[in-house]
Amino acid sequence: MAPRPPRGLVQALLWGVSLFLSLPGPIWLQPSPPPQSSPPPEPHPCHTCRALVDSFNKGLERTIRDNFGGGNTAWEEEKLSKYKDSETRLVEVLEGVCSKSDFECHRLLELSEELVESWWFHKQQEAPDLFQWLCSDSLKLCCPSGTFGPSCLPCPGGTERPCSGYGQCEGEGTRGGSGHCDCQAGYGGEACGQCGLGYFEAERNASHLVCSACFGPCARCSGPEESNCLQCKKGWALHHLKCVDIDECGTERANCGADQFCVNTEGSYECRDCAKACLGCMGAGPGRCKKCSPGYQQVGSKCLDVDECETEVCPGENEQCENTEGGYRCVCAEGYKQMEGICVKEQIPGTLCALIYLDPETTQCSRYCSHPHFTRVGTKMQRGEAAELGFGSRQSGSGAGLIHSLRASSRR
To answer: EGF-like domain: which residues (predicted)?
Structure first.
């Protein structure tokens, strides 16, 4: 059975508030769930296979001195075969190959368990490299070092020094990837065998290349000096083997908005917003305006704010004008507040009986009034304990439910 609200307005309100607070908060008050980060990309199957084999080899090292554990090793090895090559050892190693949370490892081990058993009992002597036999030859997940792709093609620069030793061959060692060389800083070309943009050959021989940086704005150069430039980076122009900055703001290269102005920077430019007082400008501040914005006027060389409050712009009763930057606003005068679009006199806290229902015809209370400093005397309120006010003798259908405030009388 649902709980009943207590009698009396104040008690009922308190009961309602406590019930509301006991309910779950609305959705906009609930804490937002933490943002979900995207899951990490799955490792390439070749990398999973390599990790499985590495873990398997560590298991072999861990069990190299173990035995059957029965106490009589000589008899056990004579009757049960050598522990070194036994199924018991294989099972013990495989149990520790994958961590509990490594799903990819467990899935690969399940797919390749029969192959691992075949290698363990029959192929170890002819194929001692488990990684090569399992991951490359049998499962065809990996390629030899320096090769990539389904056919294990050589990386640019050759299998001995992929990408000339100055980059990373994409997909190297796997059956995937494009074989594209991702060169180190300062190196470029298909196989990273030449210097990249902004670098020059400081040293080169048959197997070695050193690339050093050009002077700042030089794209190509013959040395590190300012006068060694052969080609300039964007935003610079070559002049007598030197790169000089192009002033885009003085050319048609700058592309700024109507309410922005151009500022030249080294090798580029910036578009910055005009002052609020301007409609278009040639620089920063209200003194560089092309025209003044509405609410501003030309005073000398500057666009300055117009004080609209010097004229009668707030016609409402008890309103006053407040000037703002480029405009104004009408606010209620001190001691007044806005209610339903008009300014009404504020009631002084502590001298009113708040939230009582008043019959507009009888001016008598039609609900309860509780205030710590007032009590009822006739139809007026005086200081004292709170009292219950009775219903009026007549009630108006339109006015009985309106919320009013009854001014407390200081007279007894």
So the answer is: 153-193, 305-344
Question: Under the phi-then-psi rule, with left for phi > 0, alpha for psi from -120 to 50, and beta for the rest, what region is 240?
Answer: left
Sorted by sequence, the CB contacts under 8 Å of residue 330 that are 6+ apart come out as 313, 314, 316, 319, 320, 321, 322
What is the reported pLDDT for 10?
46
**Residue 181 to residue 192: CA distance in whole angstroms:** 7
pLDDT tier at 320, thresholds 50, 70, 90: confident
200 strand-pairing partners? 212
Are 223 and 236 contacting, i.e. CB atoms less than 8 angstroms apart? no
State how far the alpha carbon of 197 is from the alpha carbons of 170, 179, 194, 353, 367, in Å.
21, 22, 10, 82, 86
DSSP bridge pairs for 298: 303
Instruction: State the pLDDT at residue 69.
Output: 52
Spans of all domains in the chain: 86-142, 254-306, 313-339, 348-412
pTM of structure = 0.53
Burial class (CB in 10 A: 0-12, 13-18, 19+), 359: buried
Bridge partners, residue 272, by sequence: 261
